[in-house]
Amino acid sequence: MKFEDAYFEGAAGVSEQLPSGDVPEVVFAGRSNVGKSSLINKILNRKSLARVSSKPGKTATINFYNLDGARLVDLPGYGFAKVSASEKQRWAELIDGYFEQERDLRLVVLLIDSRHAPSKDDLTMLDFLIEGEFPMVIVLTKIDKLKPTERKQRLAAFPDELDVDFEHMLPFSAETGEGVEELRSIITECMAD
Are strands 136-141 and 70-74 parallel, antiparallel or unpaired? Predict the structure, then answer.
């Protein structure tokens, strides 16, 4: 896969705007400000294809990136408190609408901030993905922000905090590039199936 050749395909603000799900898709999900846009830019080797903001809740649409006849799908972040109830309802309808459609969904990349225990919203999303039997990898973002001892402690704690056994739990840093090649390999492999 030529990750560098990806381009922005479009955005959907309501479920009626979602494109057909006729190509393989990899979905990126996580709480607000967990680093989804930074991760997407890093794996695509682009500086600003996915818009990055220091303010949580900026991605209010589902954004689609075309990648070599497949799609990367950036969901709005969940768990951000400073939006109106009507905006939260619109996000919920949009995300539910996405997952309820017939789509060629190959993988969900669930991003969790490595510096903290999973939030209640992280665990709710994890339960949703497990119940739906979606293929999934957990990516632990911002791993570069931890000192070596903290990193070891956090990585040891995650399996118990998540209360599930995962084949793929990948430390990731958009700053240093740690985890980039592994995540690219996982995405390439699932798109080839």
Answer: unpaired
Helices (H), the chain: 36-43, 85-100, 120-131, 148-162, 180-192
Amino acid 56: pLDDT: 46
Determine the Cα–Cα distance for residues 87 and 25; give it in Å rounded to an integer: 25
| pTM for this predicted structure | 0.90
Pick the CATH number of 3-192 from 3.40.50.300, 3.40.1180.10, 3.30.930.10, 3.30.2280.10: 3.40.50.300
Sign of CA pseudo-dihedral 134, 136, 141, 143: positive
- 21 has a pLDDT exceeding 70: yes
The answer on pLDDT for 100 being more than 70 is yes
> Residue 52's pLDDT is what?
53
* Domain boundaries, given as residue ranges, for the chain: 3-192
- Residue that the structure tokens 């592994």 belong to: 182
| Distances, alpha carbon 143 to alpha carbons 105, 166, 170, in Å | 27, 18, 10
